[in-house]
Amino acid sequence: MNPAEWSVRHPLPAWSAAVLMFAGGIAACFQLPRFEDPEFTIKQAQVITRYPGASPEEVSREVTDCVENAIQEMGQLKQLDSRSLRGLSIVTAEMRNTCRKQDLPQIWDELRNKIDTAARSLPQGAQVPEIVDDYGDVYGAFFAVTGQGADSVRLHEFARSLQKKLLRAEDVKRITLFAVPPEAVYVSLDRTRLGRLGIAPQTIFDLLRARNPVTDEGWLRTGNEWLPIRLDAGINTLDSLRQMVISSRDGKIITLGDIAEVRSGLLDPPEKMLYFNGLRAIGLGVSTRSGGNVVHTGDSLKRLLDRLSPEFPAEIKVKTISSQAETVRQAVTSFAVNLLESVLIVIGVLLLFMGLKSGLIIGFVLLLTIAGTLMLMNYYGIPLQRISLGALIIALGMLVDNAIVITEGMMVRIRAGQDKLEAARGVTAQAQLPLLGATAIAITAFAAIGLSDDSTGEFCGSLFQVLLISLSLSWLTAVTITPLLCCYAFRPGPDPETDPYRSGFFLIYKNWLDWTLRHRTVSIALLILLFIAGLMMFSRVGRNFFPDSTRAQFLVDIRLPYGTSIYETDRAAAEVESYVRTLPGVGDITRCVGGGALRFILTYAPEEPDTGYAQLLVDVRDYREIPALIGRIYEHAREKFPHYGVIPYRVRLGPGAAGSIQARFLGGTRDELRQLGEETMRIMRADPNARAIYTDWRNRIKVITPVFSEERAGRAGITRQQASDAIRESFEGLPVGSFRDGEQLIPIYARAPRSLPDRDFGEGIQVWSPAANRMVPLSQFFDATLIEWIDPVIVHRDRVEALTVKCDPVHGLSSALLRELRPKIEKLKRPPGCTLEWGGEYENSTDASNALYVRIPPFALLMVLIVLFLFNSVRKTLVVWLCVPLTVTGVAAGLLWSGQPFGFMAMLGVLSLSGMLIKNAIVLIDEIGLRLQTPDRPAATLLLEASASRIRPVLMAALTTILGMLPLIADAFFAAMAVTIMAGLTFACVVTLFAVPLLYACFFRIRASTPE
Length: 1012
Prior knowledge:
By secondary structure, the chain is α+β, with helices and mostly antiparallel strands. Strands 1, 2, 3, 4, 20, 21, 28, 29 and 30 form a nine-stranded antiparallel β-sheet that branches. Strands 5, 6, 13, 14, 15, 16, 17, 18 and 19 form a nine-stranded antiparallel β-sheet that branches. Strand 10 (245-249) and strand 11 (252-255) form a beta hairpin. The protein starts with a helix and ends in a 9-residue tail after the last helix.
């Protein structure tokens, strides 16, 4: 049975379904998970291997190469990056885009097996590789534990206690402490006295290692019981450590306190430092379990902290560095307001141009469709976030298309005197298949992005899912609920014989169209010229990947020469922070020294550990103030901090990487790569629009290399390891055991009584000589002390040494700066075997576009086949598809006029626009085909009447979409897409109403009503 007829004959089930959809939509509003941005899977894992004491070259050759070789065997591998530093290897494995999220646990298990096998081949001294497969975990709640006057040990104890208590919050996956100042116990030996007593330092070290193990003494049977036996826990106070007996001579006991200073303190230097508004802090990051609600987790944490806060020590405060719950709440609220505004705009337009009854019918069906969409989103677990809510706004115009066509047709038929049931049956029978095909095409237009394998496709995947649900429901409600409402609302007109399309705007349109048909050569030439003009304008449109974030936060990277003391880096970062704090609109500032912060949002990639690196996370009142603040910081830093690399920038939206422009050189010797890097940086520095210029290899550093004499040392009974331990003890400190303090094991370091970082290898360093049974100067076993320059970081990409030079534009888009730099850099003479790749935004955009382009052809073919099956005509299919390229003129004009770039979101706008245009063209061509079946009337007249009968649905669909997009113009993420759709659809109306009839007349040889 015809769906409209069934609905009219059985109104109760139809109304019951409508009530269910409204109720489900309202319930979904309170139940749907909420996020700021959609999740996408970071298909990367890191393999971290420590090789204490090894140079970067030794780490690269003996550890990194072995790990890379094992990972290279994995068939799922897409890309392999590695960094070899002093004593540390970091290998990052990225899996192919085709690897699904649910497959990753199995892939990481395979990776572990590979690494476990490779670990057997690692050199002696290399530690067991650590595999970090939760690299993409987001710590949506990031707190700073601070205390005015509280020492670091007290802060750490409080943070550990709070960590355990907050685990009770809803949907918490993990709580991580960050930038914890490590405690240490230092034992400073009096080597002069040791020499007089004849005690070797190694004897003391062995005693320290042996005094505090966890031991198992077994069980004792007493009668019917087995009782465990356990020795005393061992050393648990500094005093007991000082009283540890070293030896006994002549009846005199010598303790550790007699020959060494024993004190507790913080590890010096620390690995990382964290400050909140200038106060030393410990970070506390909370991640939400997969599928959990970030807002609920944030609210639960807030309630817990409010309940626990009366118990906090007066001097200790817990401050919020970043809270996704608040950001998500603001973002979802903002988008919900935008959605409501769009709905009200669309309904207002319908009431204004369609009349009160028609407008109310279509508005009711629109609200019903949105409610049903929210209900199904809740059922399928599609959360509310930037993309899914934006998809609803994008779909608004298309959601009313089907209802407009049905309402228009029934209104005309009923007012012409036709029976309501017959009108419902007739209109639906005529329009349901064309509308279904047109809806399927609109959905298919987004399938390429929804089914794309890469992270960008995953990021935007909910766009396709929401459009699939909403557009499908719009067709279903159009052929069931809409006819039912029309039967209630419309009454027969006063003059059934009156043609509604013979007056007013319809008559003006038919006269214009008639002129177009009579001057078809001129008209087609004009269309061709407009298309060419569009291509020319499009060549001037800027390009980008994803826009910057609208978060009211921005970042400032501070880079000092590699090898800079973390204390000097901290001092420099504090100078920059003090200036930033004076700027208007700046709120809280978090300073992280020695590496990046925790991944507090998905699109933030933490910087790897580096004592010469610091980062500021700056809160502002309004994100619109950020560009001006960034400009002022950059100019001030260039004048006041010329020796620092001060790089302010905004957080990105969507997948991406730091450094919007990256020139990557692969192959060649290290000297050749460094030379190319220097020449590239010179080219970038010469461009006034380039800033934040640096290479990932950083600067070469000096290394002190004592030349050890094996012969002289052998005669004294001194080994290379003993010499190494003596040097380390004199400066950094030598780990010699652990000290149990309650739940913690605190490392014990043997360190010289005075920390002298500037000391040379002179008489001050003493080493125990077994042959002489006394301390002797270490310097007598060195032939010379050399100063060498080495590369502190060795970078590989897919097992080839690679150097990357990065920069960002001062103003404008990175694509414009890349156009300036690219020809100059590509002209550089490269040695044989050395290649140049462009990374950064260009690479990200190209990869995402390629992933999309691979998907487009099969879906474009599917769209063509749908049109072909609908009309069973090649010529009608050609008419539809020849109109699609003409939209480039409107798109290019809109982007140029607004200054918006053509990026990934604008590309989605083009796909959406194509679906809308094809949908309108299908409805128009179907009506033309039906009218032309009327005998005894001129074909040209019927063509004009058919086109006029569809002018209201076409214009209303366009107008509702264009005006519904207005709230998105102010949104940084969707602005380019909104402009693309609004400008393109404005021009597409002209194409649909004039080009489609014109091409139809040409292909089917319909002569004009009057001779040309």
